[in-house]
Amino acid sequence: xxxATALDLRSQLRFxxxxxxxxxxxxxxxxxxxxxxFSTMCILHRVKLYNEITLTHLFTLCYSIYYLLLSxxxxxxxxxxxxxxxxxxxxxxxxxxxxxxxxxxxxxxICQFTGHxxxxxNRPALVDNLLQSLVLAPYFILFELLFKLGFMPxxxxxxxxxxxxxxxxxxxxx
Length: 174
What we know:
Blueprint: H1 9-18, H2 23-44, E1 48-50, E2 53-54, H3 55-70, H4 72-90, H5 98-120, H6 130-148, H7 153-172
């Protein structure tokens, strides 16, 4: 799968979906991508950059800008979720010990790699593009939820058609 166009939503989602179309693996990712995202935000919140600004704040800003550029509506939803976690961390409404944060982080990655090995039978997207995968994974999961709730059926159908065509093209070259 070639690299996706940076600010084209369909291209970005297609890149990630290519590696995640088996139902059990997608379900594993639906649970553990947010787990990894949350634990990462908790860990990064421990790193102060300036006064009360943490690495999590910078992380949220960068992810939010990218998500908003890809899709303003979905980006606003994603930004709201990221900001809510920031507020909860800033106010100590959420406070885990570092060992618990690290345990969630490691558990999430183990489950995802297991999903790829046992169910997807395909290498993870991060093998081909680490940065794109880490940034896109949470957004992809948000879109999978939105698709399940009946939002953006045309985009969902286009992605399914794209993946089917990619599979057919791949088979033709074998």
